[in-house]
Prior knowledge:
By secondary structure, the protein is of the alpha+beta class. The chain has two domains: about 10-55 and about 160-295, no CATH class; about 65-145, no CATH class. It has eleven helices and four strands; from the N terminus they run H-H-E-H-E-H-E-H-E-H-H-H-H-H-H. It has helices at about 10-15, 20-55, 70-85, 95-110, 130-145, 155, 160-195, 200-205, 210-250, 265-270, 275-295; strands spanning about 60-65, 90-95, 120-125, 150-155. The chain has a four-stranded antiparallel sheet with strand order 2-3-1-4. Helix 2 packs antiparallel against helix 10, helix 7 crosses helix 11 (about 275-295) and helix 9 runs antiparallel to helix 11. The chain is rod-shaped. InterPro entries: ABC3_permease_C, FtsX. One of its GO terms (cellular component) is cell division site. Keywords: Cell membrane, Membrane, Transmembrane, Transmembrane helix. It is found in: Cell membrane. This is Permease.
Amino acid sequence: xxxxxxxxxxxxxxxxxxxxxxxxxxxxxxxxxxxxxxxxxxxxxxxxxxxxxxxxxxxxxxxxxxxxxxxxxxxxxxxxxxxxxxxxxxxxxxxxxxxxxxxxxxxxxxxxxxxxxxxxxxxxxxxxxxxxxxxxxxxxxxxxxxxxxxxxxxxxxxxxxxxxxxxxxxxxxxxxxxxxxxxxxxxxxxxxxxxxxxxxxxxxxxxxxxxxxxxxxxxxxxxxxxxxxxxxxxxxxxxxxxxxxxxxxxxxxxxxxxxxxxxxxxxxxxxxxxxxxxxxxxxxxxxxxxxxxxxxx
Length: 297
């Protein structure tokens, strides 16, 4: 016999005498609201981490730190020529000293503009393909003409940020799993409460020949519908809030925050949560009610 999701009018009259199950709808709305927010946080952080990896893959910073200005400039110019001649180098640009001065001004104040300050010469490099072999070739070529050079991979600078993003993603996933477990627990409690409330009615149904499975279907259909309706409400509110936050992040103009976006697949996953939670609630209700009914008679 197929299981109907929407209970009939007779089923609603049987189970909703006190209208106590109406609280399930709002409980599920709150649960799904929090779950969708946690899921969006995890998916958005994962997207930002992937965007950061793409931006920093194969990007190098060459610093020439010779103490003598003339030697520093000569080695930097030689390193720039060698880099631009390599087939793996997509872009190699000398960083203007004025830009470096602006970056140092918050720490050095007006002394950052002192021409005698031994600021390292810096070169930004983009490699394609971004492989260990291409990085090794670029490093060897630079050191051959500029012994005072130091080559840093930009992704190594951002490793702590990448680790933090991974932790946030894992935490959000754990929250989603905890909310699913809490939903199952709420459903079990609601099902047992409903059994206690309608114990006399259930005994009459048993005497009329109803099986435990048939009685349990009354509860699981009611709980599944409450979960689905509440889940849709909570998901709709959460998605509206996520869209508003997304517009605010886009207005900030940060390269890192601009990567916090949800793909169509992410949106599809978030929108499927009410259905998944309704199925989870149905399964939990069936198990709880069937196990409890076996002890009634």
